[in-house]
Structures are given as structure tokens and as C-alpha cells.
Write a structure and sequence with these properties.
Elements (H helix, E strand, L loop, with lengths): L4 E7 L3 H15 L4 E7 L6 H11 L3 E5 L6 H11 L4 E4 L11 H9 L5 E5 L13 H18 L11 E4 H7 L10 H8 L6 E5 L15 H13 L7 H28 L3 H24 L8 H31 L4 H23 L5
Parallel strand pairs: 1-2, 1-4, 2-3, 5-7
Antiparallel strand pairs: 4-6, 5-6
Helix pairs in contact: 1-2, 9-10, 10-11, 11-12
Bound molecules: guanosine-5'-diphosphate and magnesium ion.
Length: 363
């Protein structure tokens, strides 16, 4: 039977959830020709191995193991591009999304009732009663309200992670998706030139079966980053804007340390300035690791120490470029403050380019 539906399961440490979920999907879909594509970002708990074991037992299961990459949105995009099925669904692997909705979602798309079928936690008849985190529910409701206001998309749950559409339609949008932060559904809706017709399916949102949520505190940050990326991000790339903001905060830290050492403790300028540089650099490294590169965050003492040393080395080179450019321009007669600003700009672009590759990237 020709393939009808691909179900994309992005996974990060979902080993124990996969087997039971594939069984539930199989039971829900009956004789529909489906495939499951598990997109695993090199989970430490052996999710990819478990996925391969399932694939050996059932040829409807496929695996993509990504090394050195992270991100829910980019995993979904990977799935859109890896399947030949005409329809594609994305769902959580943790059993929060009930596979029993899949057949009705598929039917509605085939009947042309909608361009995209969305399982909603907030539609009439839906429930989040089993959801174990009430603050998450409130946060989602808030993000939904903001999303509706800003995108004009009239949906009860634009932040839903469970939806289905024609694969060709998804793939056509892929080159223009931002793929970072933004929940992928909202990204698809906001990117499409013609408004997509949506049909909502009330979801009985369940508690995660096992393991822990990876998105807890990040949901709002993700959302704002995605929003920025879709608007101003076209002018100044999102990550560079974050990097620059962190750098700006670093200047404040620098002056705080410098003045404390100079005026409170009474140290000499050279020592005070050196200490301030070190503290500011370490602060910037920490904040960038925590925020700017949170999807590639360095963890564990060894990795953090190496990252910190690399960051300091990068900044040293950046500082050199900064001073060289500023001195050159000032020598050419440019107003000193403008020359300094030009130096800062060159230095920060340099720091950004180098550290994104050598500290948080892969060689
Ligand atoms: N491939 C991949 N999957 C991810 C990543 N982050 C989360 N997931 C998976 O995406 C789904 C949704 O994440 P989850 O932690 O359940 O978020 P929540 O439902 O908002 O609490 C789960 O199946 C996760 O395993 C990621 O960076 N890469
Ligand atoms: Mg989940």
C-alpha cells in the first residue's frame, strides 16, 4: 500500500516512551499506511538505539540520529524533508499527545476541510486536567494570547506541538521558516503567504509518561526569540542580537567591578582594569552559554572550562582587532568616540563569528 502518513517524533531522552508510543500509533491508525520517523538529537539515554531496535522489529519505524545538533523546530523540518509520505504529522514522544486523533486529522485534510489540522489543548471539549504543571498551562495560555494578537492567527492553541498537514506544503515553506525558537506550528502559519485554513481537534492533554520536559522555562523565551526572528531578525540576526545584548550587559559588569576595585578597595588602575576584564569576560561567557547558545549549551566541568578558555582567547583576538581598527580610524582623523564605536563593532562581530564557531560550534 502506498505510504499515506508520516509521523515525526522529535526526541531527546525518551527511550522508555518510544516502544509504547509506536504501539499506540499502530493501534490508532489501523490499516492506514504510515511511517514513524524518530529524529533524535543524540540523547544520552540511548533513545536512538532503542529507536533502531524498534525499526528492526517494524519496518514502519525509521530513525534519524543527529550529532551535534539540537532543536525541536529543526527536528520537525528534518522530518518534513526526510519522508515521501504525502501527509505529515508532528507530535511529542512523551505520550502527552493522543495518537487516537490521527485518523480524524488525516480524514479532514483529505476531505479538503482544512490546510492544517491542529490538536488543541484549549478548544471546546479539550482538557488539560491531567497536566501536572498548572504554571505551564497558564504560560501556554498567555503565549497563545500574545501569538493570536501578533500574528492575527485565530487559533485557540497556536503554540500546540501536535498538528498535521500536506508534506509538500510544509516543504515549500521550509526555506523561509526561521527554525529557531518559535514553535514550528506558529512558524508555518506566520510564514505562509496565503492564510492556512485550520481545523482544530480538541485534545485531552495527558501527563508525560516518563522522563522530564525539556522546554519548561524556555517556552516564553523561545516564543520571544521566534517573534524577533520573524520581524527584526531579518535585519540583525537573532543570535547576534542576543550576543550583542550580552556584550552590553558585560560592559555594565565591567564598570561595576572596576569602580568597586578603584574606589571601594583602592586598588591601582592596572589591576582593577585587568580584574574587571576577566570578570566581564567570564560573565559574558556564562550568559551566552545560558541564553544565546542555550540550544548548544556546554555542560560538565571539562566542556565548560574548555569553552571558557576558548571564549577568553576569542575575546583577546577581538580586543586586538577592536583596538587596531579604532586606532587606525582615529589616526585618520575620525572623532574619537566614533572610532571607538567602530572598534567595538568590529571586535564584537569578530568575537561572535569566532566563538559561534570555535566555542559553541563544532570543528
Ligand atoms: N530532536 C529533538 N527533540 C526534542 C528537543 N527538545 C525536545 N524534544 C522532544 O520534543 C518533544 C517535546 O518536548 P517536551 O520536553 O515534551 O516539551 P513539553 O511538552 O513542552 O514539556 C519531546 O518528544 C522531546 O523529547 C531537541 O532539542 N531535539
Ligand atoms: Mg511534552
Amino acid at each position: 500500500m502506498p505510504l499515506d502518513l508520516a509521523i515525526i517524533l522529535p526526541t531527546l531522552n525518551e527511550r522508555g516512551n518510544l516502544g509504547p508510543l509506536v504501539e499506540r500509533i499502530a493501534a490508532a491508525l489501523g490499516d492506514t499506511a504510515w511511517e514513524v520517523i524518530i529524529i533524535d538529537d543524540d540523547s544520552r539515554d540511548g533513545t536512538a538505539d532503542e529507536a533502531r531496535a524498534l525499526a528492526l522489529a517494524n519496518s514502519r519505524v525509521r530513525v534519524i540520529q543527529r550529532i551535534g545538533r539540537r532543536g525541536l523546530a529543526s527536528a520537525a523540518i528534518e522530518g518534513f524533508c526526510a519522508t515521501a509520505a504525502p501527509y505529515v504529522a508532528v507530535m511529542d514522544a512523551d505520550h502527552q499527545h493522543d495518537p487516537a486523533l490521527l485518523p480524524a486529522m488525516l480524514e479532514s485534510l483529505k476531505a479538503g476541510e482544512a490546510d492544517i489540522a491542529v490538536a488543541s489543548r484549549f478548544a471546546d471539549g479539550a482538557s488539560t486536567a491531567d497536566w501536572d504543571a498548572p504554571e505551564r498551562e497558564r504560560l501556554s495560555a498567555f503565549a497563545n494570547r500574545v501569538a493570536r494578537r501578533l500574528t492575527g492567527v485565530d487559533l485557540t492553541d497556536p503554540m500546540s506541538g501536535y498538528f498535521m498537514l500536506e508534506t509538500a506544503r510544509a516543504r515549500a515553506l521550509v526555506p523561509r521558516l526561521s527554525g529557531i525558537g518559535f514553535k514550528i506550528l506558529l512558524d508555518l502559519l506566520a510564514t505562509s503567504d496565503t492564510p492556512l485554513r485550520v481545523k482544530e481537534f480538541p485534545l485531552q492533554f495527558a501527563a508525560r509518561r516518563e522522563g522530564t520536559s525539556k522546554l519548561d522555562r524556555a517556552i516564553l523565551f523561545d516564543f520571544l526569540a521566534g517573534l524577533y526572528d520573524k520581524t527584526l531578525g531579518q535585519v540583525i540576526p537573532t543570535r547576534f542580537a542576543l550576543f550583542g545584548t550580552v556584550g552590553g550587559l558585560g560592559v555594565i559588569v565591567h564598570f561595576a567591578v572596576l569602580s568597586a576595585l578603584l574606589f571601594v578597595i583602592g586598588e591601582g588602575f592596572v589591576l582593577a582594569q585587568t580584574a574587571a576584564v576577566l570578570v566581564a569576560m567570564s560573565f559574558n561567557f556564562w550568559l551566552n552559554n545560558w541564553l544565546t547558545y542555550r540550544d548548544k549549551r556546554l555542560k560538565g566541568w571539562g566542556a565548560v572550562l574548555r569553552g571558557w578558555l576558548g571564549f577568553c582567547a576569542t575575546c583577546a583576538v577581538g580586543a586586538f582587532a577592536n583596538v587596531a581598527v579604532a586606532t587606525f580610524l582615529e589616526g585618520k582623523g575620525l572623532f574619537w568616540a566614533l572610532a571607538a564605536l567602530a572598534g567595538i563593532l568590529v571586535g564584537s562581530v569578530w568575537n561572535y563569528a569566532l566563538s559561534s564557531r570555535f566555542v559553541w560550534g563544532r570543528f
